[in-house]
Amino acid sequence: MPEQEKKQKQLVLKVEAQKQQLERLVSKIETQGQQLERLVSKIETQGQYYRHSHELFDQKLDKLARLASVSNFSNYQLFNRRLTKAHCDILEQEWSRKLGIKVTPRSLAYLAHRICTLESAGKGRLAATIEDAVLRVLVASAVKNKKLRVLEIGTLFGVGLAAIYDHTSSRFSSVHLTAIDPFDGYYREGIRDILTDEAVNEPIFRSNLAMAGVPEQDYTLIKSMSTENSSIESATKSLHDVLIIDGDHSYSAVKSDFVNYLPAVREEGYIIFDDYDVPEWPDVKEFVDTIVRDSSDVTLVGVSWRTAVFQVVQKSEETTNSSTN
Ligand SMILES: C[S@@+](CC[C@H](N)C(=O)[O-])C[C@H]1O[C@@H](n2cnc3c(N)ncnc32)[C@H](O)[C@@H]1O
Fold it and tell me: Residue 2 and residue 134: Cα distance in Å, rounded?
């Protein structure tokens, strides 16, 4: 075979081989293109699915928001409103023993629900976390008396007292609430509530108690500062089973409330300090830890969250003065 012809044949074979390679490449690209198309279609389907799920979720959320009047709550209420399992465990395992009461996770959830419902139905707000509010109510329910008298210093909108009444009125032969608060502004005359911008006044307090089904004869309003002699005189006319100190949180004010109103609490009655151990109000813890814990008039029942609970063991004015001066 002449050299020329041999070269031509080799070239034809080479071209043929390249053609086959090209065909394989094209076929591979086609397969990959198909794979890509399937992938795009899968992504589109998934995208549609996610868009649909998102729409469904939005619809459900809207429906829930329309059904629940409390859906705007978290936008202004800073205090926790969900009683968690951890809260229930502490209440069930520690406080039920300390207070000698029986609770279950369901009864606690119901109590928390009632408190939230009362807050939602009333004006203003409850200035406490749900776990602290539940604990306060349980302390009141633990009183070993047929009749229950509760005295609160610093009442704001009255939701905390309303919650105590709501839970205890069917457990005691009578319940009487006494509220000491100027009911004229948030801590200062004319100042509206810092979170809700609601007015803090007597009509709103009364309407909240009426909403909670508290008859007028079941509560007494002492409309002045706890430091006023007239307030101390009025409150100490009766003995109370529970005293809640939740007014002015400065050291001197908490001290004066403890000293002045201790005589208004009967033996074995409870004294509850709110906002114990919170960075915003260090004076409460300081007074409680340095003075109240050492007082021979009271004994510590327990401390949880923002609440410290004591029980009056002995009534002696002399001891009170010497331990608190
Ligand atoms: C933290 S809020 C009370 C919250 C309320 N106990 C609750 O659970 O929703 C404090 C209230 O105490 C009032 N207050 C402040 N100093 C007081 C005092 N020395 N005597 C009585 N009330 C006082 C304030 O005006 C305010 O209404």
Answer: 108
